[in-house]
């Protein structure tokens, strides 16, 4: 741009505009510098976190040898079973096994001391040493004046040693029989207790069924008298009630038998054991 051209552009009319131009440019530059620049948010890499542990405890089903297990009665059930086994151990059958062990121990003691019966001792005193014949003043002396003898069999040591070994084996046999009898009685009393629990629960269920059948029968009887149902429906309700009562009688019989068998082993009423828990 030449000086002449610049003079033509800058006249008196627009001089003030050119004077204000630098200030306007400075303001625009400052405003542009203060304007925040929008930047794209940085990409966040997802962090793999371990799975949270559940605060709910896992439900565990406790093991029980009883078919009818109640978690709230665990300790009580164990105590009842132990009490039943302890009472069954007072059964005369187990007492016989215990006395057989005592007899075997006595036989062992007898074998240890019986060797003295095989040893014999004897002595002999010459009668002329005590009462000399008359007419002999310090005369003849007969020898031996006395003698002593001991009898000892040659097999005394080997025989008695083997007898003691046999007696010890008899003690071991008696003890093994006692242990075996203990296991048999324990299994028997626990089995009888399981039968007792089974028939007791069956009795409770069947009693409820009989009550329901009785209610149905009474309603059917009323409906039949009112002419609402037919004879066939009434007979069906009557037959169902009779069958359920028959089943109840059979379960009561089985329940009483199981109770008798259990009390035969423990020697006391089962109610006294259950009430003391």
Cα separation of the termini: 120 Å
Low-confidence segments, given as residue ranges, are 40-72
The CATH topology is given as Outer membrane efflux proteins (OEP)
Query: What is the mean predicted local confidence, pLDDT?
Result: 75
Strand content: under 5%
Per DSSP, the total helix count is 8
What's the story with the biggest beta sheet? 2 strands, antiparallel
CATH class: Mainly Alpha
CATH superfamily: Outer membrane efflux proteins (OEP)
Q: Kindly state the number of beta strands.
A: 2
Order of helices and strands: HHHHEHEHHH
Helix and strand topology:
Elements: H1 3-9, H2 15-34, H3 74-88, H4 92-113, E1 120-125, H5 127-130, E2 146-151, H6 156-225, H7 231-266, H8 270-275
Antiparallel strand pairs: 1-2
């Amino acid at each position: 741009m030449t000086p002449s051209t610049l003079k033509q552009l800058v006249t008196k009319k627009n001089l003030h505009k050119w004077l204000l131009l630098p200030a306007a440019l400075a303001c625009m530059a400052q405003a542009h510098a203060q304007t925040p620049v929008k930047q794209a948010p940085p990409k966040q890499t997802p962090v793999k976190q371990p799975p949270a542990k559940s605060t709910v405890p896992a439900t565990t089903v406790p093991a029980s040898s009883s078919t009818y297990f109640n978690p709230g009665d665990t300790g009580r059930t164990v105590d009842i079973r132990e009490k039943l086994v302890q009472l069954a151990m007072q059964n005369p059958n187990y007492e016989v096994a215990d006395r057989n062990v005592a007899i075997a121990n006595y036989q062992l003691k007898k074998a240890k001391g019986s060797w003295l019966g095989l040893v014999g001792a004897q002595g002999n005193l010459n009668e002329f040493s005590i009462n000399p014949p008359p007419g002999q003043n310090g005369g003849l002396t007969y020898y031996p004046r006395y003698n002593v003898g001991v009898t000892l069999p040659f097999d005394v040591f080997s025989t008695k040693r083997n007898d003691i070994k046999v007696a010890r084996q008899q003690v071991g046999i008696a003890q093994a029989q006692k242990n075996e009898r203990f296991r048999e009685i324990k299994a028997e009393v626990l089995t009888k207790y399981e039968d007792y629990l089974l028939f007791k629960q069956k009795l409770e269920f069947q009693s409820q069924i009989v009550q329901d059948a009785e209610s149905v029968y009474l309603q059917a009887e009323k409906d039949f008298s009112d002419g609402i149902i037919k004879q066939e429906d009434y007979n069906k309700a009557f037959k169902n009630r009779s069958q359920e009562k028959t089943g109840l009688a059979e379960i009561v019989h089985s329940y009483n038998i199981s109770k008798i068998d259990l009390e035969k082993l423990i020697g006391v009423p089962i109610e006294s054991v259950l009430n003391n828990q």
